[in-house]
From TrEMBL:
This is MarR family transcriptional regulator. The keyword Transcription applies. Keywords: DNA-binding, Transcription, Transcription regulation. Residues 27-118 form the HTH arsR-type domain. PROSITE patterns: HTH_ARSR_2 (PS50987). InterPro entries: ArsR-like_HTH, HTH_ArsR_DNA-bd_dom, HTH_MetalResp_TranReg, WH-like_DNA-bd_sf, WH_DNA-bd_sf. SMART domains: HTH_ARSR. GO terms for molecular function: DNA binding; DNA-binding transcription factor activity. Pfam families: HTH_5 (PF01022).
Length: 118
């Protein structure tokens, strides 16, 4: 099946069948963007530390995450705001305490893969 888009069909290829396979492997541009956004979240060591802690332990409050990661409470809160806006985590309020947990299943699977050797 020929997958080269019409706007690129006039360009010369060396291995045309591999080009089509590469286009198929890349897939939907929206899905590529979603994964790029996930990787951007993981690119910051502090956000990654928060996600790993939440993934491994389950719901934790901001102050507990601050102690676990060595960050201060405002920095944890700011990172969690970003992670929450991206749909990676959610907070569940219990009285005055909000405990956060990872809710993006694809991100959770990636975190599980990253920590599988531990």
């Amino acid at each position: 099946m020929h997958l080269v888009p019409a706007d690129r069909a006039d360009r010369r290829t060396i291995d045309g069948h591999r080009v089509c396979d590469a286009i198929a492997a890349i897939g939907d541009a929206g899905r590529v963007r979603a994964w790029a956004d996930r990787f951007a979240l993981l690119a910051d060591p502090k956000r990654l530390a928060l996600l790993l802690a939440l993934h491994r332990t389950g719901p934790l409050a901001v102050s507990d995450l601050a102690v676990a990661t060595g960050m201060n409470d405002p920095a944890v809160s700011q990172a969690l705001r970003l992670l929450r806006a991206a749909g990676a985590v959610t907070g569940e309020k219990e009285g005055r305490v909000v405990r956060y947990r990872v809710v993006d299943p694809e991100l959770a699977a990636l975190l599980a893969h990253c920590t599988a050797d531990d």
